[in-house]
Design a protein that fits this description.
About 35% of the residues lie in helices and about 30% in strands. The chain is built from nine helices and ten strands. The protein has helices at about 15-20, 35-45, 80-95, 110-115, 145-155, 175-185, 195-205, 230-235, 235-249, and strands at about 30-35, 50-55, 60-70, 70-75, 100-110, 120-130, 140-145, 160-170, 190, 210-220. It is globular and about 50 Å long.
């Protein structure tokens, strides 16, 4: 069963070093974005250098570095979904040396009153995906340790936010009315696709994750509403905030 997948008794057969050799040491902080528009804006706007690439049989993900407030900041365009995003974090750490990750993206709202006009800082994520069960003991939720530090930074910056539980699922076409109702009853205010897996990987390897979201589509309405989805994915406010957070960490 999947809940028995966390094996701490035996060693992995393969490691990231088998594919990439010695670990790189270019940066201590890395931005993780899911928006091709934000990624392109970074490349157009800042002097950037490609320092590595994440390899896969379906192509390569370049990893770039830029200077920010006197330090080197890495960034890349992440794969979507918990398994892709979490594995990208493992490989980005190995390629760059970064141990602090700032991840930002869109989410679906499960509580319009709570999330409207505010960023969402997740405190826990419901583990409705697969990879987290290989990196953490089985449980319904995983705690997000970076939430309080991130909330303090948002407070310093006078940025409106709400903290709460979120639901991580890779199966977005199976977000049924019944599933939504159960997650709402457990206190989830948003649904997204990566956090539980990425947090489990970060906990296992000793990385620090700072994650925030913007809700776009709405699932707690009589009819599905995707009006705000494009902006939640691609508006540059998230990037500007992530860069300011990177400066202050």
């Amino acid at each position: 069963m999947i809940i028995h997948s966390f094996d701490t008794q035996t060693d992995p057969i393969m490691t990231v070093a088998d594919f990439y050799g010695a670990q790189g040491q270019f940066a201590d902080t890395c931005l993780v974005t899911f928006s091709h528009e934000i990624h392109s804006h970074l490349l157009r706007t800042y002097p950037c250098e490609q320092i590595a690439r994440i390899r896969a049989c379906n192509g390569f993900t370049p990893v770039y570095a830029m200077e920010l407030a006197g330090k080197t900041l890495a960034f890349y365009l992440s794969g979507v979904g918990a398994t892709a995003a979490a594995t990208n974090v493992i490989e980005a750490n190995w390629l760059t040396g970064a141990e602090k990750f700032i991840m930002f993206g869109s989410a679906g709202s499960l509580d319009r009153a709570a999330t409207g006009g505010r960023y969402v800082i997740p405190t826990e994520a419901y583990r409705d995906e697969g990879i987290s069960y290989h990196y953490a003991p089985a449980a319904d939720f995983i705690r997000i340790p970076g939430a309080d530090r991130l909330a303090a930074l948002f407070h310093e910056l006078s940025v409106p936010y709400v903290q709460g539980r979120v639901w991580t699922t890779d199966a977005f076409y199976r977000e049924t009315r019944g599933q939504v109702a159960r997650r709402q009853a457990e206190g989830c205010i948003a649904v997204e696709m990566e956090l539980a897996g990425v947090q489990a990987v970060c906990d296992y390897h000793g990385f620090t994750l700072y994650d925030f979201l913007v809700t776009g589509d709405v699932l707690d309405s009589p009819a599905y509403d995707r009006t705000g989805l494009h902006g939640a994915n691609h508006d540059l406010d998230k990037l500007h905030l992530a860069l300011e957070i990177a400066r202050r960490l």
